[in-house]
Amino acid sequence: MLPVIVTPGTTRENWPLRRQALLELFQTYEFGRRPELPFQVDAELTGVSPALDGAARREMYQVTVRTCRGAASLEMALVLPRSTSPVPTVLLLSNHDRVPAPAAPPDVQALETLMRNAPGDWAEQTKKLFAGMAGSPGPEPLDISQDDHTGYWAVDEIVTSGRAAAAFYASQAQADDRTRFPSGLTALFSDPAAPRPDDGWGALGVWAFAARCMVDVLERHPSVDASKISLAGHSRGGKAALWCAAQDDRIRAVLVNNSGCSGAALSRGKKGEVVASITAMFPHWFCPNYRRFGWREEEMPFDQHMLIAAVAPRLCCVTSGSLDQWSDPDAEWQGALAAGEAWKLFGFPALAGPRPGPGETAYSGPIGYHTRRGGHDLTAWDWKNFMRFLDLQGG
Ligand code: GCU
User: Fold this and answer.
1) Cα–Cα separations (whole angstroms), residue 89 to 55, 161, 215, 222, 254
2) Distances from the Cα of 263 to the Cαs of 189, 217, 275, 278, in angstroms?
């Protein structure tokens, strides 16, 4: 049974209280909470150059976060279309780097325990799935200081839609490496040598926090329409983007691409990646509490539809790749479908079945969904449709 989003007595008027309770669940059990410490965010313009053959202007920033423990800086790119008035802006939380870092070796013992304890035929199915993915290329590098031609950050699609395109590298906030957690921005908030509390934040929480710091900078920019800032992320970046938008209602829309397990996909009944495997492979992404739900999803006092719901009544577009079995398109769809309860409370339509097939979109309300043909990826096709979703829904 899925936990209920709209509990008896919840109304439009008192929704902020219910939303707060939902966020509290995710802070306690999944992403953890940021240690309370005052911080300050500043931006320095480090370069201006033409973009898209002169059709746009690229500004590069060094964004610095400071606490009493020190400072950490991240780059941000902002590509602005020619416009006389402030423009809506789409920020990408990029989990692709300029130069991909070497991956830390897996924790073999954790993986062996995972496989040994896996119920049913999960271990066998997973081995087959991984064998099928062997040899598939790793993430393409992304240089946010240049026009990107991979489709992962389709600046041309964004800018020709009349919006500005911004991006930053999540890894500059916190390296995506369990052997280097906590470091970077994370270390500004607590002593890296101190034991992590059970609800201490993990890398996804830190990346989400970095995205909100970028929003701090964007909303002060005179060419940005601060009422129309969208946040996009792919995969682990999609999980972090969703968590950021759930908490920060300055974000008008969130574009959650192939976020799978612990993102938009329901954990109950999920196939492919599950809580036990994601916490074994990426323990640094979550708070320590989350691990306890491995193979015990039915006992979770929450599920991922509640994370999506915390975005309501703002805009949210969830996507799947038709062949992305590790993420589980059906579980992503079920998450978005069940979250609709929250939008209904505000008189907006929820999603309704059947699930859109490969190449199809469902954009008739502020909670939208699409299925791209193919596997785990973020492509120009997704961006074209994200812009259409924003055009239709006022983002
Ligand atoms: C792995 C991980 C996923 C994640 C993905 C990605 O496959 O298991 O949870 O979404 O990497 O970020 O590309």
Assistant:
1) 16, 10, 10, 12, 12
2) 25, 26, 11, 11
DSSP 293: G
Give me the amino acid identity at 101. Answer: A
**CA distance linking residue 243 with residue 256, whole number of Å:** 10
Regarding the beta carbon of 261 and ligand 1, being less than 6 Å apart is answered yes
Residues found in the chain? 395
Kindly list the distances between the CA atom of residue 380 and the CA atoms of 240, 377, 393, in Å, as whole numbers in the listed order.
21, 10, 20
* 279, 308 contact by CB (below 8 A): no
Ligand 1: does its nearest atom lie under 6 Å from the Cβ of 19?
A: no
Q: How far apart are CA 18 and CA 6, in angstroms?
A: 8
With beta carbons less than 8 A apart as the criterion, state whether 326 and 282 touch: no
- Summarize pLDDT for 295-317 with one digit per residue, the tens: 999 999 999 999 999 999 999 99
Rounded Cα gap, residues 83 and 261, in angstroms = 39
pLDDT computed for residue 247 by the predictor: 98
Determine if ligand 1 sits within 6 Å of the CB of residue 260: yes
Q: How far is the CA of 238 from the centre of ligand 1 (A)?
A: 10
Q: Is the CB of 277 under 6 A from ligand 1?
A: no
Rounded distance between C-alpha atoms, residue 79 and residue 303, angstroms: 36
Cβ atoms of residues 338 and 305 within 8 Å? yes
Separation of alpha carbons 306 and 309, rounded Å:
5
Mean pLDDT over 157-176 rounds to 98
pTM (global) more than 0.85: yes
- Taking the centre of ligand 1 as the mean of its atom positions, its distance from the CA of residue 207, in whole angstroms, is 15
CA 174–ligand 1 middle distance (angstroms)? 16
Does 10 sit in the ligand 1 pocket, CB within 6 Å?
no
* 261, 325, 326: residue to mutate for ligand 1 pocket, most atoms within 8 A of CB: 326
Q: Measured from the CB, is residue 238 less than 6 Å from ligand 1?
A: no
Residue 34, strand partner residues? none
In the structure encoding, which two tokens stand for residue 291, read together? 């691990």
